[in-house]
Amino acid sequence: MNAILVDKLTKVFPGGIVAVDSVDFDVRVGEIFGFLGPNGAGKTTTIKMLNTLIRPTSGTAIISGYDIRKNAAGVRRRIGYVGQNVGVDEYATAWENLVLYGHFYRLDRSTLKQRMNELLDLVDLAGHEHRMVSTYSGGMRKRLDIAMGLIHWPDVVFLDEPTVGLDPQTRAHIWDYIRALARFLNVTIFLTTHYMDEADQLSDRIAIIDNGKIIAVGTPDELKKSISGDVVILSPCSAREEDCQGFIEKSRQSLADRSYVVAMQAMERDLAVYVTEGETALPDIVRRLNQDGIEVRTIAFSRPSLDDVFLRYTGKIIRDQEGVPTTYADIQRRRNKRKS
Q1: For residue 172, what are the CA distances in angstroms to 59, 169, 198, 244?
Q2: Which structural domains are found in the chain, ordered by start?
Q3: Cα separations in angstroms, 70 against 59, 62, 151
Q4: Number of H helices, E strands in the chain
């Protein structure tokens, strides 16, 4: 059974800018659905249409039985939204914040009190509900923010970058609360994140959007298997070489006829080579490039991860923050840090 069914959803802005281009996907009841896309891919526009904040140009979506075009009010009653920026009032207590949101949804006093006690227990804030939020840690504020988004028993909760800026221990705790929502309360979670480990650990399924189109949907394991084999990342470029793309293209041509090469993807200063049996392919790649007069400056080998899946389908690497370039070496450093 579907909690969300998206049918040819399209948004064209003035000037003919197509932000979302006839996307189709479904989100099942009780699952955690990850939504990934680089900046400008159409991710935010899609979410705003699903939240009824902007109207689609064409197409529609059904959320908990309500059409976002025909019954926006019905959709709003059945969804919760927890934004990237914490939306709590720091000059009020947690209890007062929850009461305010309960009144927004016209909950009667008895129902609201019961619901607040349940949520405070769920997010481990019981006993702290009468403290000023200004005295809370970042993690406590985020947990309160999640509780506020759940006050009205929504069927679907949109979590936009729920752990951005939090320390690793707090992130892990937030993950536990998100899992509890889906597993024990049967709440459907629509999750946006640029943390690949978060998407991998939490999501039952993931959709990747790029240039306004959904280009891949599947479980994390299915997406990793879809790119086949292993990943070899090589750089024929030194820091001072200006014609880096020329070296990369020459490397691509040199390896194009190798039987073990499944696909290749050029990056800014590297070439990703998707191969079968990376252990045997790696030395042959080096030999072949050397024979063609191409010196390999750096080379790395790994099993496919969601980083590789994202790169394979979009040709891009998600950045930790806007405007900060991310290289494959940065990805490898993040992997090593996770393992340690």
Answers
A1: 37, 5, 9, 40
A2: 2-223 (3.40.50.300), 227-339 (3.30.70.100)
A3: 12, 10, 25
A4: 12, 14
Dihedral (CA of 160, 164, 170, 173) sign: positive
Q: Are 161 and 3 in contact (CB under 8 A)?
A: no
Question: Model's pTM, two decimal places?
Answer: 0.76
Which runs of consecutive H residues, i.e. helices, occur in 227-327?
244-255, 278-291, 306-314
Q: Assess contact for 247 and 297: CB atoms under 8 A.
A: no
Is 333's pLDDT higher than 70?
Answer: no
Sorted by sequence, the CB contacts under 8 Å of residue 264 that are 6+ apart come out as 252, 255, 256, 271, 272, 273, 274
pLDDT of residue 169: 84
For residue 154, give the nearest of 4, 1, 25, 34 by alpha carbon. 4
Give the residue-averaged pLDDT of 192-210. Answer: 90
Residues in the chain: 340
Which amino acid does the sequence have at 260?
Answer: Y
Range picked from 17-31, 76-90, 273-287 for highest mean pLDDT: 17-31
* Burial class for 215, CB neighbours closer than 10 Å (0-12, 13-18, 19+): middle
Cβ contacts of residue 211 below 8 Å, gap of 6+? 21, 41, 42
Contacts of 79 (CB under 8 A, 6+ apart): 50, 51, 63, 64, 154, 155, 156, 157, 158
CA distance 228 to 207: 18
Residue 217's beta-bridge partner residues? Answer: 207
Which helix H or strand E contains 124, and what residues bound it? none
